[in-house]
């Protein structure tokens, strides 16, 4: 799904030669650095670097990878991705399972005033609290929660810039960057490969962003939703990676105290309480085979 050669090519094309101390003139036709320039600046032979970009060189050393990261101006997330891609041929990473421990569901249930979700590396929602269900509008009579929701599919194939996501374009960048990281961590996950293929077939924007090979770590920041019942909700998200290399994370969306968004969440909770079959509770999803992937 992802490879070291393609990542190096896209990163090289984005480096401004001037920032690397390479003089340019109007006759230069190469976007970014040339292969031989990257090789010279990183201290490796041109032949070896060409073989890296062609996928013919295996097991580059940590020192070579660090030198390439420096020359290509990679940030911390991109550096980690580069090292994972280089290790793929040496060590395969087992794809994590999808079981959510009951203790995690209990913790999720303690979050009462903010939407909270447990998601896996494919962005499948494995469990959600009541407010998360109300935010995404996924009532399921007899089985409350958010079964079947994959936020990547939701953003690219079910929603648009006029839908639930007020910052739709930014959301698409975050999703593609996250899936790129996941593809580097779990290159042998067939369900992840299937999801990426489905998104590429169904969304021109996804295809365009995927070709850029950008990677993004989901940690914290602003998310804005345009809810059909309570209007604009400007929330802050915190992503907590769960232990045991499960590939899961807990996502909590909070509102600033005293803000209109806090009032909006309170109103949304009240509407849900009056809505009968729109009530949500923490739940395990159905069998893994029925989850979106």
TrEMBL record:
InterPro entries recorded: Cro/C1-type_HTH, Lambda_DNA-bd_dom_sf, MLTR_LBD
Short name of any one Pfam family annotated for the protein: MLTR_LBD
PROSITE patterns: HTH_CROC1
Domain HTH cro/C1-type, residue spans: 28-79
Domain of life of the native organism: Bacteria
Protein's name according to its UniProt entry: Helix-turn-helix transcriptional regulator
Organism: Streptomyces roseoverticillatus
């Amino acid at each position: 799904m992802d490879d070291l050669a393609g990542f190096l090519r896209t990163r090289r094309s984005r480096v401004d030669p001037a920032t690397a101390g390479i003089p340019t003139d109007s006759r230069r036709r190469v976007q970014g650095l040339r292969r031989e320039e990257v090789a010279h600046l990183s201290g490796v032979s041109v032949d070896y670097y060409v073989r890296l970009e062609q996928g013919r060189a295996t097991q580059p050393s940590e020192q070579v990878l660090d030198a390439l990261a420096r020359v290509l101006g990679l940030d911390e997330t991109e550096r980690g991705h580069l090292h994972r891609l280089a290790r793929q041929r040496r060590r395969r990473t087992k794809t994590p399972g999808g079981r959510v421990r009951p203790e995690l569901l209990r913790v999720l249930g303690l979050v009462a005033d903010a939407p909270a979700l447990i998601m896996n590396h494919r962005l499948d929602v494995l469990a959600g609290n009541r407010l998360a269900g109300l935010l995404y509008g996924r009532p399921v009579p007899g089985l409350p929660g958010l079964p079947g929701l994959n936020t990547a599919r939701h953003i690219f194939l079910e929603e648009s810039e006029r839908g639930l996501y007020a910052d739709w374009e930014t959301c698409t960048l975050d999703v593609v960057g996250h899936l790129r990281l996941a593809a580097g961590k779990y290159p042998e996950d067939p369900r992840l490969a299937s999801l990426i293929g489905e998104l590429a077939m169904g969304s021109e924007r996804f295809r365009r962003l995927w070709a850029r090979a950008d990677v993004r770590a989901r940690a914290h920041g602003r998310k804005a939703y345009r809810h059909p019942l309570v209007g604009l909700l400007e929330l802050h998200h915190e992503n907590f990676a769960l232990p045991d290399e499960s590939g899961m994370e807990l996502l909590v969306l909070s509102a600033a105290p005293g803000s209109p968004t806090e009032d909006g969440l309170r109103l949304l909770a009240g509407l849900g309480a009056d809505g009968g079959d729109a009530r949500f509770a923490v739940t395990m999803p159905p069998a893994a085979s029925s989850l979106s992937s």
